[in-house]
Amino acid sequence: MADVASVIAETVRRERGPILGGLLRLSGSIDAAEEAFQEAALSALEAWRDGAPENPGAWLMTAAKNRAKDARRHHAIARAKAPLLAEDDVDEGENIDTVTDDYLRLIFTCCHPALAVDNQIALTLKVVCGFSTEEIARTFMCSEATVSQRILRAKQGIEGVKAAYAIPERRELDARVLAVLGVVYAMFNEGHIGRTGPLMRLNLQAEALRLGRLLCDLLPREPEAFGLFALMAFNAARASTRVDSDGNAILLSAQNRSQWDKELLREGLMARERARTLGGRGTYVLQAEIAAVHATAPTWESTDWAAIVTFYDALDTVAPSPIVKMNRAIAISMHRGPKAGLDALKEVARDLEGYHLFYATRADLLERAGKDPERDLEKALELATNDAERRLLRDRLARIGTRH
Amino acid sequence: MADYMLMVLEDEPAHAALPAKAVAELIEKRTAFEDELRRAGILKDSGQLRPSKDGKRIGRDGAHLDVKRGPFAEEGKALGAYFWIDAPTIDEAAKLAAVCPTLDVDEVDVRPVTKGELPEGTLDKPGKIFACAVLGNTATEDAWVKVMDRIDAETSERFPSDSFLGGVRLEPPRTGRRVATRGERRASFDGPFLESKEVIGGIFFLRMASIEEVVRWASETRFVVHGALEIRERWRT
Does domain B2-233 have CATH number 3.30.70.1060? Predict the structure, then answer.
């Protein structure tokens, strides 16, 4: 017989999301759901002493539901507050669609658009991923008190929204799905490029990938879920080559491509294939297509820049933005030369006048066109906040200085 | 017309070593191959599987249940993709196997299908899809067929009806072909190919939330008394 403690640990880890989602319907609050779940897990330690039940997940679900019902009854009697608002009957079956619906309900709730992004991420890490406040604080490099505040605010925010726990109606589903994908992508980027401090925090990135995979399983007909996962997989595959041993950033053009994670690249390519099958042309799918061109190019020089320009054109139609136009200008400079790139960049000079990467980009194009990049580099350094990026800019300035 | 399974046996280390560009090309070629079969009206189902290192194999070691993690290197090549097709003869099926996109180091087994139940709409519903290959480990073909009969009788009832998606049962290996690259050209060999004792007797599909869940449901069945069950997650493509 397998070690009961490890069966419990595995069951708790795996069933946490779906069960909490089901309890949300019953309890009417995240706190009450978490409490019922914890009590059920504790009772399993006692009840499974002589061996785990045949279906530990179902056992845990039933135990947690009973705890939640007891708590609700107790609460109602104590406050003499009837009728109860939460649903009375929760489907007892093992129907997988119910389970996945419950899981989705939990994620939709934590990523509710009424909450600020930082609060959404904190709540998702706590409730969906099961991290402790201390772990989240370490990840965000802030105090536990700050994290607790964020989670509290997020929970209060949800309590204030009518029908916050409901799975959205079909017509608002798309918008809500995009909000959920946005939170996962924000989590990934927070792990990928921190605003301050070290360039990468891999745990957060791994967690975002895990959630991305989960969303593909829960929303198998949503091309943007696969697009987002592919995009994250391609970027994560390059993670270990993005900084050198001193923590300095290495640009894509100089990264050692043989060290990119082939397994993640394959996973990304399969996800892109699914997105294509589903006929997706949304922002994540298009960004994934661009990342795929980079991921499959043997070298920076042999990259299919024409394809990248085409995808940026499409992206700028679907979701026009100065950043997209800036990246499109870089692709144009590679495809048709730095002068063409500088022309394309002019369009966004005003929109991006406070953005360090705009100046870093223009400096690069100026240098390639044989012009002086110094003023742009200095401006970029003035605006950059990430340590690794600042070092890179200083190095480039020093290099120009010695040449003059 | 009859049903055949083309099962691509991949040299996984060779696949893992491919540059990303070659991986992307292989994926695209397989999609094109599928489209071609579909347009010809002869594709019943097809799928690609995640690497065997993410898979599990349940067997029995004496009285103990033995759950191994992949890769199952002693078996040589791992099942990487399959195409369930309709063809007039096994020769025609073997011709398709010869143009099926693979690496030069891969092989394709062509096996007649005894009976099958199509897994419909699997990729569009939530959950993970697992391909479960029933491996028979017996000394003789007769014994192998008996084991498969018993497993067959129990399989569909063993799993929750929402999870069990159907599958195929295959004729004994003697009736199959193996298509492999030898030098410049693809050659076709008659079965049996019993260099590994564990021969696939069938594949069925389950939709579940995790591989652990599949292992738990499958642990009690006869698959593991007279052979093994290899559980592999299917990619969504």
Answer: yes
